[in-house]
């Protein structure tokens, strides 16, 4: 029914990496980090950025060592058939969780703020239909979408900058009061940075792999800076006590603007951010379908349908926000630590095996 | 063509499933312009709603409804038994809290306004001397509703008396939750058949403790607010006067030696002379302006020092929003220490007037 094409350019790779991280995290991140690190939460956010940079860097080196073969091929050569299968299942589960968290979070934010009249299930189904059509065309289509939506990121940053001189520096001082609490808050940022694992799957499709590492790091840095700036602005305006009390501090911040014509920035912000979410979800679903097609040995297009049906089901379970945050708290650390260990292990093994000549298939 | 068909199916699908249902039509909604919270005897809460009523073309009337109850939404329930239209909480322009209610505690109001996503964060907040029903019942003079009139009164006051401009509910949340700060909001009272601004209501935590009277409010405002506007007038015994329009800048420096905290408040006032009826042969040369600057800087510094000492000694309370600077230096965990030691701390006020313009007349 659909033809799909997976080739992407280097810039598209950067945009996908950059966009795949921006999910519901951008709204709720400040609250999570301020609970632990108080006014120094933005430092934790900045330091937590080591996770995407770590993953992107190691991934690129792994693939360079293995001559940019596809993910399954590399796994098969390093770990053997059985372990490769297990790891693919793990990544499928990881993306299933990631996508359901984002979709249910998106639904919760919409029903919480602008579209109170809609049933959350309607939003889930409609979003899934749109995602199905997006990912069916393959990664090339997602790359183009990311390129287009990247410029919305700039607008997302411009809106909070309205508050740059409205805050009070006393809210950010003393800059560091407790080093332990800052380190303790770093794992809280991992949910916001998760999604970057997609680089494991899309690197082989980049047409020009010369400076792909720089592109990946650039993409990660844009998101890290975006997150840090929004957290700084939120804390300097609200103070850390209020920030840690709010469910979506950034949403509170943008709706506090007093403007002459618009009542506030909230609907505009939700509109821009919602577009980003479609893209984040498309990347997550691509990861799901791509791994699923390997697991059940079926065509990619059919797997797209299965994954969309699956996320409708899984995100419906996570609908009230407290349900979702409970599951995130339980699941997220395991996923992130497994990915870190997997990447590190693969990096070492691929380094050892790099001498062997692999042909690109 | 094939794509067009597909896209049109998706769009149609979206439109069918996301229509705006379960929303009251505009004919059945009413615009709430203000809400007042009050306390009756025997600790029963009472709240007053003021809303607009559209009667035919270009005739806009207003109505108020007062209900009593044990909690905010208990009163809401009872209000729906009286009112005939659906009320949207997002349009509230003014939150008026009576003095009795403010002294009783407003933590429930803060929670309700912060929790509900539909509520407007730019609602203006004020404390009233009389009961809110009494005030909202009055007939507005130059607006449709009393709430709008009070809001306009507060917003237009920014241009004089160095009045604070952090009067909305989001500023109130900030004052309530940020360390070392206290809620200070405008205090309005009945004046003949209208209302006037009568000072500043000062809260400790969520309870009002005292009112800064109108005469002192100006000086407290200079000490408290950064980038505030106002007029200063200096009169002599010979009924001569010297008036300047000012814009104030405030810088706080906190020194800490093991025992006491010393707050240095430096106030820089940019002024332009509006009236200088002091000397008939006055020529505003550079020397003369410097002389005037020094003379009046000393005078205003002395007055501000008096006020700061008075509030520190009489109330042992920081009415100038300076504790946050001490906490920013000592650490967020020292909040209690800073608050407890405020009475032992020292406040030095240094004001400097800088005249930028002398107006049309130079001699």
UniProtKB/TrEMBL annotation, chain A:
Key words, A-Z: Germination, Membrane, Transmembrane, Transmembrane helix, Transport
Report how it sits in the membrane: Multi-pass membrane protein
One cellular component term (GO) for this entry is:
membrane
The main location is membrane
Pfam families xrefs: Spore_permease
Q: Where are the transmembrane segments?
A: 12-30, 42-63, 83-106, 118-136, 148-164, 221-243, 250-271, 277-296, 303-319, 331-352
InterPro entries assigned to the protein according to its UniProt record, in alphabetical order: Spore_GerAB
User: What's a BP term from Gene Ontology annotated to this protein?
Assistant: spore germination
Query: Where in the cell?
Result: Membrane
Q: Which family does it belong to?
A: Belongs to the amino acid-polyamine-organocation (APC) superfamily. Spore germination protein (SGP) (TC 2.A.3.9) family.
- Its recorded name reads Spore germination protein (Amino acid permease)
The organism of origin for this protein: Caloramator fervidus
UniProtKB/TrEMBL annotation, chain B:
The residues forming a coiled coil are 275-302
The subcellular localization recorded is: Membrane
Q: What is its main location?
A: membrane
The chain positions of domain Spore germination protein N-terminal read 23-189
Pfam entry (one)? Spore_GerAC_N
Provide the GO biological process annotations.
Answer: spore germination
Instruction: Give the top-rank taxon of the lineage listed in the UniProt record for this protein.
Output: Bacteria
Which keywords annotate this record? Coiled coil, Germination, Lipoprotein, Membrane, Palmitate, Signal
What is its membrane topology? Lipid-anchor
A GO cellular-component term linked to this record? membrane
Q: Which residues form the Spore germination GerAC-like C-terminal domain?
A: 199-359
- Record carries keyword Flavoprotein: no
Entry similarity comment? Belongs to the GerABKC lipoprotein family.
NCBIfam families in the record: spore_ger_x_C
Q: What is this protein called?
A: Germination protein, Ger(X)C family
């Amino acid at each position: 029914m659909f033809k799909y094409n997976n080739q992407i350019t280097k810039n598209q790779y950067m945009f996908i990496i950059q966009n795949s991280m921006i999910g519901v995290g951008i709204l709720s991140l400040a609250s999570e980090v301020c609970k632990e690190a108080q006014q120094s939460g933005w430092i934790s956010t900045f330091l937590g950025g080591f996770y995407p940079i770590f993953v992107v860097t190691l991934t690129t080196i792994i693939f360079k060592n293995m001559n940019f073969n596809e993910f399954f091929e590399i796994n098969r050569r390093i770990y053997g058939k059985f372990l490769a299968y297990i790891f693919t299942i793990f990544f499928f589960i990881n993306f299933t969780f990631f996508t359901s968290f984002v979709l249910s979070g998106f639904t919760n934010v919409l029903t919480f703020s602008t579209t109170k009249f809609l049933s959350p299930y309607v939003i889930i189904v409609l979003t899934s239909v749109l995602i199905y059509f997006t990912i069916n065309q393959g990664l090339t289509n997602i790359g183009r979408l990311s390129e287009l939506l990247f410029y919305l990121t700039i607008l997302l940053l411009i809106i909070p900058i309205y508050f740059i001189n409205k805050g009070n520096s006393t809210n950010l001082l003393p800059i560091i009061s407790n080093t332990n609490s800052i380190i303790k808050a770093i794992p809280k940022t991992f949910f916001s940075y998760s999604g970057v694992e997609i680089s494991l799957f899309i690197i082989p499709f980049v047409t020009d792999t010369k400076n792909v590492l720089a592109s990946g790091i650039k993409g990660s840095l844009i998101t890290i800076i975006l997150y840090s700036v929004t957290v700084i602005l939120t804390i300097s305006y609200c103070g850390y006590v209020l920030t840690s009390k709010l469910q979506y501090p950034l949403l509170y911040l943008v709706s506090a603007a007093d403007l002459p014509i618009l009542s506030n920035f909230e609907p505009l912000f939700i509109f821009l951010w919602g577009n980003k979410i479609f893209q984040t979800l498309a990347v997550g679903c691509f990861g799901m379908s791509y791994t699923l097609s390997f697991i059940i040995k079926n065509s990619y297009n059919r797997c797209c349908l299965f994954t969309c049906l699956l996320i409708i089901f899984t995100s419906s379970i996570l609908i009230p926000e407290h349900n979702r945050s409970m599951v995130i708290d339980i699941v997220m650390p395991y996923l992130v630590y497994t990915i870190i260990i997997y990447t590190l292990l693969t990096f070492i093994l691929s380094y050892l095996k790099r001498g062997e000549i692999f042909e690109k298939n | 063509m094939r794509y067009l068909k597909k896209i049109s199916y998706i769009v149609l699908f979206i439109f069918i499933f996301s229509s705006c249902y379960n929303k009251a039509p505009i004919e059945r909604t009413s615009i709430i312009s203000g809400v007042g919270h009050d306390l009756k005897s025997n600790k029963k809460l009472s709240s007053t709603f003021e809303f607009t009523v559209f009667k035919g073309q270009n005739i806009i009337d207003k109505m108020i409804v007062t209900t009593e109850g044990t909690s905010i939404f208990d009163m809401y329930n009872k209000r729906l038994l009286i009112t005939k239209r659906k009320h949207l909480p997002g349009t509230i322009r003014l939150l008026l809290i009576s003095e009795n209610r403010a002294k009783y505690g407003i933590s429930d109001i803060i929670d309700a306004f912060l929790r509900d996503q539909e509520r407007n964060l730019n609602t203006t907040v004020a404390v009233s001397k009389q009961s809110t029903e009494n005030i909202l019942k009055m007939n507005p003079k130059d607006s449709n509703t009393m709430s709008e009139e009070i809001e306009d009164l507060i917003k237009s006051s920014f241009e004089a008396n160095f009045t604070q401009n952090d009067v909305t509910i989001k500023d109130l949340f900030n004052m309530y939750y940020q360390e070392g700060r206290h809620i200070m909001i405008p205090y309005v009272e009945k004046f003949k058949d209208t209302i006037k601004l009568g000072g500043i209501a000062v809260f400790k935590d969520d309870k009002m403790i005292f009112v800064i009277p109108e005469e002192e409010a100006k000086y407290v405002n200079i000490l408290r607010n950064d980038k505030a506007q106002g007029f200063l007038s200096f009169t002599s015994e010979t009924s001569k006067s010297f008036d300047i329009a000012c814009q104030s800048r405030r810088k706080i420096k906190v020194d800490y030696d093991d025992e006491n905290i010393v707050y240095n408040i430096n106030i820089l006032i940019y002024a332009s002379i509006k009236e200088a009826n002091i000397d008939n042969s006055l020529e505003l040369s550079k020397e003369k302006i410097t002389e005037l600057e020094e003379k009046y800087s000393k005078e205003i510094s002395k007055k501000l020092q008096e006020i700061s000492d008075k509030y520190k000694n009489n109330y042992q309370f920081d009415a100038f929003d300076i504790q946050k600077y001490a906490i920013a230096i000592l650490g967020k965990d020292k909040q209690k220490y800073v608050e407890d030691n405020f009475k032992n701390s020292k406040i030095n006020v240094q004001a400097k007037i800088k005249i930028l313009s002398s107006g049309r007349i130079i001699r």
